[in-house]
Amino acid sequence: SVVIYGANQHTVEMLSLIKDVPKPKIISIIDYNPKINSISNIPIIKPKDKFLSEVDLIIISTDRNEELLFKNAKSLVKETKIPIIRIYHDYLVNYFAKTFLVNSHPITPKTSYIMCTVRRSGSVVLESLLKSTNLVGNPKWHFGKLYKLTKNLQLETDYLDIINKIITLSSSKNKIFGTKMHWATYNQFETAVTNTNKFGPLKGDRLVRSVFPNVHYIFLKRNNNVKQAISLFKAQKTDIWAKTKEHDSHDLTLSYNFDGILQALKSIKYEEKSWTNFFRENDIKPLTLIYEDFIKDFDKTIITIFKFLDVKVPTNFSLPKPKYKKLADNLSEEWYVIFSKDYAKFCKK
Q1: What is the pLDDT of residues 128-155, one digit of tens each?
Q2: Torsions phi, psi for 309 (to 5 deg)
Q3: Structural domains in the chain?
Q4: What does pTM read for this prediction?
Q5: DSSP character for 134?
Q6: Which strands sit side by side in the sheet containing 26-30, from one edge to the other?
């Protein structure tokens, strides 16, 4: 049985949206100062201790002051251990950790790592392979989308609490957490954490180490920046960023555009230089992986990462075949030849 905490317009709209959706039994709506008797024929009551015996779950319903209502609900349930779900806060955790909080088993990691990457350098494939080992967490692009959602929705939620839950719910059983960051993601992450005012003037690696335990840095880059720029330009135009082997065919209706590829090249060089400067300024020696080497020997790359993170390589270790297919095609090669000539002329101007 479910109880909704909050007799407000948010609850009215929420119940209207889910009226025809299969759902658990909602026995009541609780509110300390109710102005009406019911919403959608669900009675509104003032919370009392005796009603807790019938409750399996409490859902906080508000788009404002979610943390305040959550604290009130925790005080209400006391030692009963009744789960409390915050719609926005916990949705974000569920979404990014790919788990359901009520049935989750948090793991506090002892080691963490950040895959510091430049766009179109093979991070999607590497992320998928690392996850498949079940030994180094799930290095998803956790914090870029999280920052955008909390900012765009203007959610009044505890950003650090969301981060900590994502960390504990995305760690592997051997207590390792991994995440992926582009340079823009790192900037968003640093801004959001700094804005919590819980770490004072800390910046860079010192701030990162205040959030992630025993953090290691893996720098994934590509030697051929021109081919990388062509890949980025095509992905931006088609919105196809990765392709599985089950989805081989797609219609590319693209035209060569020197200025577009040039802009992608400048962006890639800026991202790569920004990471390089970050490592130098913070006296960090990352494990550097080169895309062109990585795609030739996946197993060797993963074993190198295991050793870097001090993870014991299992006996008879082997990786499943990557589920993602290389996006570069004949069109990419044609553009590479054309752009290389055009770029040489451009540099002479």
Answers
A1: 899 989 899 889 888 776 666 666 555 5
A2: -90, 5
A3: 2-94 (3.40.50), 106-346 (3.40.50.300)
A4: 0.73
A5: T
A6: 38-39, 42-45, 26-30, 2-5, 57-60, 84-86
